[in-house]
């Protein structure tokens, strides 16, 4: 039996004192989308959804939930892939999507202050119009910035620019007991005690609720060029990546892709990929102040690729040419998802020099197990996305094959000194594999941090490091 309070009419009445009733969903008013995230097979409905519009509202709801011992699940757009925003203990779900305002653009300090419900794609459009640049580039552009902060989202530009954590200067958060607190700020350097800000980034809503973020911006690169490079084999393509990265050139992005995934994307989009001569490709992007500057970078990379057996070099130096390639790459997840009845993902990250070994292992595993497994990923930072497809398997066989395939891949990742997740987080789905991959001491420290922030364990229970 759950240790958490089951909500009743008195709780609805109480919460309605803090948040207008029209922004509360109760019982049958809660639609199906709130029961799961983008990929999770486990559905669990919250008993109440509260659509907050301020930190003050969040504070009052959290204080009430803490006093009554009600589980609280923070949620943004619900685009996660590991069950982080699934209300396992039902209770209250706090929806932050109405907190979607731009609060301040500080061009002197190169910062942007936003509420957590602002979408990633909106941030890009907003700052680029002003000649500025927010580098993190996760694949799901309709995700909220609060969700990106929650999982420390990465994306394709991480190889050059880093991940979300590298661009969060400050946060306003609401703790489990309702306390509103600010961490970090607009300062560039800070050695003032433990870095609570960086601890909160990537904590998946288990430590506190983010209600405001101060983001670091850069000047907008004026030009960018993409290279699509076909190789005879995937081994040659991926084997070239360490040579590129160890040269004096840092591409903005280095992606690898196989023909079978490209074909899925073609079918999904109804458009042909710009090239069809190879089974494996590298997709590279470079940015800079001018085409002349960028050409110095990609000329040397082109030479490396040709020396390693590349069949051709396709230069996308116009927006139209680049869009055709990157749109296909951006559709990979939805295309694979549409090709099967159900799927689950392994989001491992391994040292860059080990990417080829892991991908070859996956190829051998799918032959051995006789199931469809598809992969693509960020070759430049070692983060791979591997999808196990259910197709026509019954429930029993699917559970058996999925568990076996995942276990084998996580064991291999550990052998290669990799980690369970590169950018999607742990949530509910990957928790058993995190426990296997980390020392007991690490798990104990994480659990101690969770207890310090949330002594009653009401915030997003059963996620990351807690059973």
From TrEMBL:
Coiled coil: none annotated. Keywords: FAD, Flavoprotein, Oxidoreductase. This is 2-hydroxy-acid oxidase. Residues 42-220 form the FAD-binding PCMH-type domain. The keyword Ribosomal protein does not apply. GO terms for molecular function: FAD binding; oxidoreductase activity. It comes from Anaerovibrio lipolyticus. Pfam families: FAD-oxidase_C, FAD_binding_4. Its cofactor is FAD.
